[in-house]
Amino acid sequence: MTLLDETPDTRYLQLADTLAEAIRRGTLQPGDRLPSVRRCAQTHRVSINTVVSAYRTLEDRGLIEARPQSGFYVRSTLPALKMASAPCGRIEPPADDVLALIDTVFAAQQNPAFTNIALACPQTSDFYPGGKLGRMLSSQLRRQPDLIGQYPLP
């Protein structure tokens, strides 16, 4: 299979979309190993860097994961597909006890002694993409190894 050059997307995005579609259709099942970077580059007639960029894009989308010394695999738990929401029926007003609870929460938030610690440290990758930051840091340190380990005197 080769990629079309006529589309406006870059080749790595075309490849990422092709692989994402294979995952969505079930051609690539959760836990399946993706082709090696070299084999994928040969199959799709693209450069190795294109395949690496496509695989990183799929990692960022949460579809695949890299396993050290092993390769890339389809994640066992895939993100939920975004589907168009169906029109819902009639919405019932909340019960009085729910309204009372909401009033209590809002009143507590107005109290200056109240500290909402739930927002202190979000635990999702949307707020702190550790994997992506790590790759960016590694890339920068490969280009400028003197950034770490040396401190210029003032």
TrEMBL record:
<feature type="domain" description="HTH gntR-type">
    <location>
        <begin position="9"/>
        <end position="77"/>
    </location>
</feature>
<keyword id="KW-0663">Pyridoxal phosphate</keyword>
<dbReference type="Pfam" id="PF00392">
    <property type="entry name" value="GntR"/>
</dbReference>
<dbReference type="GO" id="GO:0003700">
    <property type="term" value="F:DNA-binding transcription factor activity"/>
</dbReference>
<dbReference type="InterPro" id="IPR036390">
    <property type="entry name" value="WH_DNA-bd_sf"/>
</dbReference>
<dbReference type="InterPro" id="IPR000524">
    <property type="entry name" value="Tscrpt_reg_HTH_GntR"/>
</dbReference>
<dbReference type="InterPro" id="IPR036388">
    <property type="entry name" value="WH-like_DNA-bd_sf"/>
</dbReference>
<dbReference type="InterPro" id="IPR051446">
    <property type="entry name" value="HTH_trans_reg/aminotransferase"/>
</dbReference>
<keyword id="KW-0804">Transcription</keyword>
<keyword id="KW-0238">DNA-binding</keyword>
<protein>
    <submittedName>
        <fullName>GntR family transcriptional regulator</fullName>
    </submittedName>
</protein>
<dbReference type="GO" id="GO:0003677">
    <property type="term" value="F:DNA binding"/>
</dbReference>
<keyword id="KW-0805">Transcription regulation</keyword>
